[in-house]
Structures are given as structure tokens and as C-alpha cells.
Amino acid sequence: MIIALNNKCNLGKNEFIDYISKLKQYDFKNNVLLCASPLNIAMIDDNEINIGAQNVSETENGAFTGEISATQLKSYNVKYCIVGHSERRQYQNESMKCINNKIKQLIKTGITPILCIGESKEQKENGETQNYLYEEIITAVNGLTLEERERIIVAYEPIWSIGTGLIPTVNEIDNIIKYVKQFLPNNKVLYGGSANDENIEELSKSTQIDGYLLGGLSLKLDKLASFMSKIK
Ligand code: PGA
Questions:
Q1: Mutate which of 162, 219, 227 to test ligand 1's pocket (most atoms within 8 Å of Cβ)?
Q2: Contact predicate 217/224, CB 8 Å
Q3: What global pTM score does this model have?
Q4: Residue identifier of the C-alpha nearest atom 2 of ligand 1
Q5: Residue 30's pLDDT is what?
Q6: CA–CA dist 52, 81 (Å, integer)
């Protein structure tokens, strides 16, 4: 199981120092990776926890004020990077082409992309989920070799589920993951969206989920520990 923690835009310097010292006390083993905010990445000791980022620039180093390049992330021993999170697609207007460019930068640098895909409530209700996920996947991997495609971890995160407390049924999740695997048969697929210590027993009935992308829960370490202890 891969457990990816997404702190999102949370935790100032002192809060993060406190957070990371508590996180280290749990014996979560190697399969946990922490996607911290970019300022906090510099404070993580990569001998103790795998470092992830939440975003990367579409471009290489250069005159791109405010951007953080894949090579810069790499220099801080970042091993994973979330790409195409629905919050960035929505609030930063990230296009599918932009997400494809970001994945190429990461692949080139040897950082594993965690590609987020997922449908809105409206798309689900209109029966458009599969078509939309297909478009998200195909545009994201455009121009990659088969070997490069296989380096991507996919995170299925229904938009209507993120931060809402709502989750799809296990059957729905399993069917979506099987659908994703028609195009990316050898890739790991995580589930994300309101996964917590109360629904993990239900989610653990899945035969398809390879791990979880955790937002809100990443900030509540006692509940995270309870979640980890219940994963099957
Ligand atoms: P959530 O967020 O666990 O708070 O729903 C997941 C995510 O956005 O990655």
C-alpha cells in the first residue's frame, strides 16, 4: 500500500516542525510519502520520510518568477509530485496540456508523478465519468513512451468526494480502477477523497485500491495512526 499525505496549503514553519517531529514517532514504514507545502519541503530529512511535492512548474529553470522546477525539487530529494489535483485544475485553471507538460518535466527529472483524475458531481450524474477520466488519462500521458507511462501513479479522486465526507461505494471505486487499468494496466492506482479512520474498514474491502491519497486526514496525526492500523 502506498499512503500519500497531501498537506495542501497548511502548516507554517513552527507548526510543521512540530508536525514532522510527531509524524516521525509513528512507525509508518517506507510506504508513506509526505507531499508538504514547498516551503516545508526543505525542512524534511529524506532519510526519515519520502518527500513529495504538490505541484511543479511546466518549464525548466529560467525566468519564470514564482515557479518551482522539477530540477529544483529533485535537488531537495523530492521523489514524488502530485499533478493535476482538481483544486489546481479548478482554481489555477490548469489545462490538460499543462498537466502533460508537468508530467514530462517530472519524468525527465526522475520524480514519480502522482496524477490525480476524477469526475465532478454533475459529470457523475450525467453518466460522463468514464469519458472524462479517459480524456484526463490520455491527455496526461500524451507523448510518453510505455516505460515512462508506467512510472506514473494514478490517484482516483472524485471531485465531489474531496473534503466532503462522501465516498463512492467500494464497487464503484473498483469498477473505475479496473477501467483506468484498461489504459494503464501496470500502474498503481490510489483512491483519494474523504478517506478516513471511520471509512477505511469499508474501503479495505476493495480488491483494486493500491493505496490512498489523504488530504484532511494528513493533518490529524492521531486519526491517521488509527487509519493506518486499520488498513488491510
Ligand atoms: P481529502 O482530500 O482527503 O481531504 O478529501 C484528498 C485530496 O484532495 O487529495
A1: 162
A2: yes
A3: 0.97
A4: 215
A5: 58
A6: 5
